[in-house]
Amino acid sequence: MADPDVLIVGAGPAGLAAAVELAASGVSVELAEQRGTIGGAIYRQPISAATPVPQAAAAKARWRSLSAAFDESGVRVRHATVFLGIEADGQVLLDDRRSGGVVCLRPKVVILATGAVETVHPRPGWHLAGVTTAGGLQVMMKERGRAPEGRVILAGNGPLLIAVAAQMARLGNPPVAVVEAGDPFRRPAAGLGLLAFPGLLREAAGYVLDVKRHRVPWLRGTRLAAIEPQGEGFAVTLEDARGTRRMEVDRVALHDGIRPNDFGLPQVGGRGEGPLVLHAGDCREALGAPAAGADGHRAAREAIRHLGADRTANSREGRDIARYRKAQALLARLFAPLPEALPFENLPDETLLCRCEGRTVGDLRALCEMPDRLTGREVKHNGRFAMGACQGRFCAANTAVLMARMRPEAPAPTPVDLTGRRWPARPVSIGALMQAAPENTDQDKEMTDEVHK
Amino acid sequence: MSGATFFWMGRSIPFQEGESIASALDAAGMVSFGPGVPPSQMRFFCGIGACQCCLVRVDGATREACLTAAAAGLEVEPAGGAHG
Fold first, then answer.
1. Residue A67: which domain range?
2. Cβ–Cβ of A117/B27 closer than 8 Å?
3. Which CATH number does the domain housing residue A98 bear?
4. pLDDT value at A204 more than 50
5. Are residues A74 and A42 in the same domain?
6. InterPro entries per the record (chain B) (predicted)?
7. How far is residue A200 from each of residues A76, A260, A330, measured CA to CA in Å?
8. Which of A15, A317, A340, B9 pairs as cysteine with A294 (C-beta 3.0–4.6 A)?
9. For the whole model, what pTM was predicted?
């Protein structure tokens, strides 16, 4: 089989939309997806025995039309396949988890659509087993069609918490509380702005009503400041303007927003003999699923233009994305943390910051107090922050924020200063790399020809 | 219930067709997936293959439990603190 002209990484809304558009234009395209199923985190499909998690009608309709269009496109999906990076000579490296070897391809365009990761701010005890992200709890619930068992507390910041709470309630185990750093009821201007987005408002109102109906306490202007093991579960400390209190729970799910999952990805553009690299969807700008779909179409059209197959110019996606950007900005204002619930305040030195390498706030403070001002890169090399298996996805941004707070006079580092940008974008075994093989080279053909001579 | 099981440290864990190893372990009450870099333990966290907290050994290969589908007879073990 020949190399595809376009390789898409990630079968979420952006990747699928791009695949549909490219196939419709007659471009040869393949999709690499890390899981055995398509849909991404947002459209995670239930296993065959499970009942689907109740979803907003608009979201269900979006998935129905996208998955039907994708099925019809006939685009090949390489499942259980993880994007590693692009070699200096332009080869795209994929880790094929089923064969156990690395595959090398030479597409003309690579569209990276690796979605978003959740932000989780450091708090004492956030690293304990039994503490997950709210999105992690939600994808498991979508997969299984069952709410997690026991007393669950959802905590952090942003609209996802209330959505997960509503879904848990509909599945029969509402959370014991939703702890929210912001307070939408105290941001009337942003609330009024949302009137311009009736679909979003309808969805949000549905979640809030469900949570109210099940009498789930929505503790706004509150932060979950610490988690301690207690018996089989946890004791959590909650802080608000009135003071501090403790609650006993079995599971904790944290979420402080989302950001692009662009860690270690090659940047947009073309280099030397390599393919043109495009980013699409939440990994370019985290605006949510509808925007990601529109952005997938935009990226597909850019790919088509690059391949010289352009017929139409269309700016509809640009306008749609601008609208979603405005909606997300309003939501961010609506959920802006109140002063009494700000993150990063009063973190004890023993709070874990980088979990992969076991590095604490105190370790970072010691580095920041050294007479020589360390750069983000040096903090990584000397302190092992952002050096572990998650490659900084969960600590680089937090470490950068804390560095800026610990030495306000120095230039503020960015998460990329810590992580750098180089492949592999995900850990890969040496064994798999040793087996790296071009799938479709002329050499293969020549060798075959030799054998036949 | 399909009746199919895989092995977690020698113990039979039931799973449903299409279910991830992480989901099946969680349903069986396994909160910890073994030792990690101290003071952490390996366990389910992000659910999308990003955090690398749920790495386990699946028939000898290091894999994210949240991405890998369970299959009958698989030998699943803790990844070990070094992550293989």
1. 6-117+259-314
2. no
3. 3.50.50.60
4. yes
5. yes
6. 2Fe-2S-bd_N, 2Fe-2S_ferredoxin-like_sf, 2Fe-2S_ferredoxin-type
7. 33, 21, 11
8. A317
9. 0.94
pLDDT in tens, A63-100: 999 999 999 999 999 999 999 999 989 999 999 999 99
CB contact under 8 A, A261 and B69: no
Residue A372's pLDDT is: 87
ipTM: 0.95
Q: Across the A/B interface, how many CB contacts are shorter than 8 Å?
A: 117
Rg (CA), chain A: 23
Closest approach of chain A CAs to the CA of B38, in angstroms?
6
Query: Cβ–Cβ of A144/B23 closer than 8 Å?
Result: yes
Residues paired with residue A90 on neighbouring β-strands, in sequence order: none
Whether B82 contacts B14, CB under 8 Å: no
What is the C-alpha to C-alpha distance for residues A201 and A364, in angstroms, rounded to an integer?
Answer: 42
pLDDT of residue B83: 46
Name the residue among B38, B52, B61 with its Cβ closest to that of A390.
B52
In this structure, is residue A347 part of a structural domain?
no
* Residues of B with Cβ-Cβ distance to A393 under 8 angstroms: 50-51
What are the pLDDT tens digits along chain B (84 aa)?
458 999 999 999 999 999 999 999 999 999 999 999 999 999 999 999 999 999 999 999 999 999 999 999 999 999 975 444
